[in-house]
Design brief:
The complex is a heterodimer of chains A (82) and B (381). With 82 residues, chain A is mostly helical. Chain A is built from four helices and no strands. In chain A, helix 1 packs antiparallel against helix 2 and helix 1 packs across helix 4. Chain B is of the alpha+beta class and 381 residues long. Chain B starts with 6 loop residues before the first helix and ends with a helix. Classes of the chains: A mainly alpha (82), B alpha+beta (381). Bound molecules: flavin-adenine dinucleotide.
């Protein structure tokens, strides 16, 4: 998967499955998912399951910190670092 | 698939059963009535190795795998009728010791985990607040950073073990703007200035396990008392809930077995209409249902423990186990009371106490409704 595709895939999932919207452009790659309340604890459980299934990684609970989950870009960076 | 237990597992289970039958017996009816926490039994459990069982030897633990630990907890539930004591032990093991083990620094483990394994220190877990229970992450307690310290303000409620605890794992907001990821976890010693522990709150069951409010007013702690990274509180809480949801009810599998034996003995001895009541199908069927619940619950419990040992914990299976075991423990307690007739309603027969103790199990570690929500989410409903 190309680097940019990671961002696009994550954004598509968040927009479609968490925000229940179709138009992916509603979410900027660098918009704060936490401050805008897009990602709450229930959505986080789903997002982690998605990341683990889609990218074959394992998200440790020690990694559940804002640095890794603040924006689509930071999530993508985290995924790549795994 | 292999359902057999190892020799080591069988030996430890049998030794635990023996220990519970010999050492964990006292005048429970009186202690339950008066709501007295058994400090001496707590110590005995630590000396036997209960509190330390799944934790590393380096911190005073027994290095047992999770399935072995669960077998020992089941045996405790069979041999010891004090559900309050067993609840208090579990509350500390899964929601205080485990997060310190998983997220603590070496220094924090030496300070807290080692003495807890040895029974020299009691810990409590403070998440729930008067305004936030199921919606745990909407907590309002704050921790403000000031130099190398945090200053905590807020109130926790329903804190099991609090009246007898020496330290508390407390969750607080360090950055509200980050939502649930603005929550951090802290380790607070009881004697810290600004921390007040309330009086034991009376409750329906589990009366030998005290609980209370814990209030923090400008409670200043050193930065080194933070557990894990700043903002990792939700992750720490989710992790300790995964352990608690999975194993806090393990004792009740043993309790169910003991209860079935008690009911069989009673039903075969008690005679009405010229025959033992066990000969009435309506009575026998209750015991049959109790047995089916026991075996189903036991399989679920062992599966979840086995998955944990394999390093592939399952939120779904743990939620199913918690939901099933808690609701069926209550049903079996109701059946046991009914089988005993009026005697089951008396304190002396010690059947009604199990029922009172059981009711809380569908509330703590996530209510039944919250477990169903979790399962529904996994089914993508
Ligand atoms: C014996 C016992 C020991 C405890 N020990 C501790 C402890 O040591 N530390 C600690 O922090 N807490 C502890 N608790 C508190 C426990 O975690 C909470 O009671 C529990 O999370 C429920 O919160 P609540 O009581 O505020 O009820 P609420 O959250 O107000 O719920 C009330 C009712 O509404 C339902 N409900 C709420 N939200 C939903 C939803 N989204 N969908 C469907 N139904 C919903 C609930 O299931 C419940 O039936 C303990 C509780 C008990 C009973």
């Amino acid at each position: 998967m190309k680097a940019d595709d990671v961002e696009t895939t994550i954004r598509r999932y968040i927009v479609n499955e968490i925000m229940f919207k179709k138009d992916e452009s509603v979410l900027e790659f660098d918009a704060s998912l936490l401050e805008q309340g897009v990602l709450d604890s229930a959505a986080m459980v789903e997002l982690i399951a998605f990341l683990e299934g889609e990218f074959g990684i394992s998200v440790a609970r020690t990694d559940m910190v804002p640095e890794n989950f603040e924006t689509v870009s930071s999530i993508a960076q985290y995924v790549r670092s795994q | 698939m292999d359902f057999s237990l190892s020799d080591e597992q069988r030996t430890l289970r049998d030794a635990t059963l023996d220990f519970a039958k010999k050492e964990l017996q006292d005048d429970l009816i009186a202690r339950d009535r008066d709501g007295v926490f058994p400090e001496d039994l707590w110590k005995k459990c630590a000396t036997f190795g209960i509190q330390g069982m799944p934790f590393p030897q380096a911190y005073g633990g027994g290095d047992s795998d999770i399935l072995t630990t669960v077998l020992a907890m089941e045996a405790l539930g069979y041999g010891c009728k004090d559900n309050g004591l067993l609840f208090a032990l579990n509350a500390q093991m899964w929601s205080v010791q485990m997060p310190i083990h998983m997220f603590g620094t070496d220094e924090q483990k030496k300070k807290y985990l080692t003495p807890m394994c040895k029974g020299d220190l009691i810990g409590a877990h403070g998440m729930s607040e008067p305004g936030s229970g199921s919606d745990a992450f909407s907590l309002t307690t704050t921790a403000r950073k000031e130099g190398n310290s945090y200053i905590l303000n807020g109130a926790k409620t329903f804190v099991s073990n609090a009246p007898v605890a020496d330290m508390f794992v407390v969750f607080a907001n360090t950055n509200r703007s980050k939502g649930f990821m603005g929550i951090s976890a802290f380790l607070i010693d009881r004697n810290t200035e600004g921390l007040q522990v309330g009086k034991n709150i009376g409750k329906m069951g589990l009366r030998t396990s005290p609980w209370s409010e814990v209030v923090m007013e400008d409670c200043r702690i050193d930065e080194g008392q933070r557990l894990g990274k700043e903002g990792n509180g939700a992750g720490i809480f989710e992790d300790s809930m995964a352990w608690e949801r999975s194993f806090i009810l393990a004792n009740y599998v043993g309790g169910m077995e003991r209860q079935i034996e008690t009911c069989i003995t009673y039903a075969k001895t008690r005679r009405q209409f010229g025959q033992p009541i066990s000969k009435f199908q309506a009575v026998a069927n209750r015991i049959v249902d109790m047995k089916v619940r026991l075996e189903t619950a036991r399989n679920l419990l062992y599966k979840v423990a086995w998955m944990m040992d394999k390093g592939s914990p399952s939120v779904l299976d743990a939620a199913i186990l918690k939901l099933y075991l808690s609701e069926n423990w209550i049903k079996s307690c109701m059946d046991a009371t009914q089988i005993h007739g009026g005697y089951g309603f008396t304190t002396e027969y010690e059947v009604e106490r199990d029922l009172r103790d059981a009711v809380g199990s569908t509330l703590y570690s996530g209510t039944s409704e919250m477990q169903r929500n979790l399962i529904a989410r996994h089914l993508r409903l």
